[in-house]
Specification:
Distance between the termini: 41 Å
Largest sheet: none
Order of helices and strands: HHHHHHHHHHHH
Strand content: under 5%
Shape: elongated
Number of helices: 12
Radius of gyration: 27 Å
Number of strands: 0
Oligomer: single chain
Helix content: over 70%
């Protein structure tokens, strides 16, 4: 919703200023210029992007319309789920976590926290972190390296669509110039015609330059930055899981393992230390019933 509001503000301010200066909005509507610029931009995206990167770009662009799902509520559910898992592992041994890790979709613990359970990437990351410890394949001190490698891979995968979109945005003014040059070519072919016709064709050519710059700096570059922030929010959530799992695997108590994760959060989603303690006490009270 915020993305749509921002786009409307950009369009409204430009068109509003244009009209206030005496221009007519229809003077900016030249389908041929849009076809040249839009087609060239889409073609460049397809040409420079592997199939997966292109689909990731579409998916991430659509996700900006909903906004970041990593709210304070999502972190509260994450902390509760982690704490309950860690308490189970502390009381009954790590083997007791196997049924939840191997089949997270049927886990009774995850089912209590639907926001977290629906986040399949986060659930998979958590299970991948706990699985080697449960199986005894690695030592707890080796887990940090394993999770860091996986997070690095995720970050690189997130950066690719942003890089592609940024490069396409940087090319848009050039595509606008291409459209303008083609418009001037058409104008020169009609140079002997009426002055009104020549003026109209020159105006259409200039609209091509305008659209290329406007789409680049008004939409595509801001969208790339928005996607980057969305990816940063997701990686912060993933790092929160990693810090907590590594802490617990290293011998921390469940509450301290969650506390380690809390301290790395941004202020807008970070609960207070007392608030976290009260929240986790409520998990114990529910489990005791």
């Amino acid at each position: 919703m915020i993305v749509i509001v921002g786009a409307l503000i950009v369009i409204g301010s430009v068109l509003g200023g244009f009209v206030m200066a005496g221009g007519h909005p229809l003077a900016l509507m030249h389908l041929s210029e849009l076809v040249i610029i839009g087609g060239a931009a889409i073609g460049a995206l397809v040409l420079m992007s592997p199939r997966k990167v292109l689909f990731d770009l579409i998916r991430q662009s659509l996700a900006t319309l909903k906004g970041s799902p990593y709210s304070k509520l999502s972190y509260d559910e994450l902390f509760k789920a982690l704490y309950e898992l860690f308490m189970l592992g502390r009381r009954s041994g790590m083997v007791a976590l196997e049924e939840h890790v191997m089949n997270p979709e049927s886990s009774g613990i995850f089912a209590k926290y639907p926001t977290f359970q629906k986040n399949h990437h986060a659930v998979e990351f958590l299970c991948n972190g706990l699985r080697p410890i449960i199986d005894g394949k690695i030592k707890p001190e080796q887990l940090k390296l394993l999770m860091e490698i996986e997070m690095q891979s995720m970050e690189e995968e997130h950066e690719r669509p942003v890089s592609v979109l940024s490069k396409a945005a940087d090319a848009m003014p050039g595509f606008g110039i291409v459209a303008a040059v083609l418009g001037i070519v058409i104008t020169m072919a009609s140079i002997a015609g009426p002055i009104e016709q020549i003026g109209e064709k020159v105006a259409a050519a200039l609209v091509g330059t305008f659209l290329g710059i406007f789409i680049s700096y008004g939409f595509m570059n801001p969208l790339a930055v928005n996607i980057e922030f969305m990816n940063m929010a997701e990686m912060a959530y993933i790092r929160c899981i990693a810090a907590s799992v590594v802490g617990f695997a290293g011998g921390m108590s469940p509450i301290m393992a969650v506390e380690v994760a809390r301290r790395g959060l941004a202020s807008e989603v970070k609960p207070t230390s007392d608030g976290l303690e009260s929240m986790l006490k409520s998990v114990n009270q529910v489990a005791a019933k």
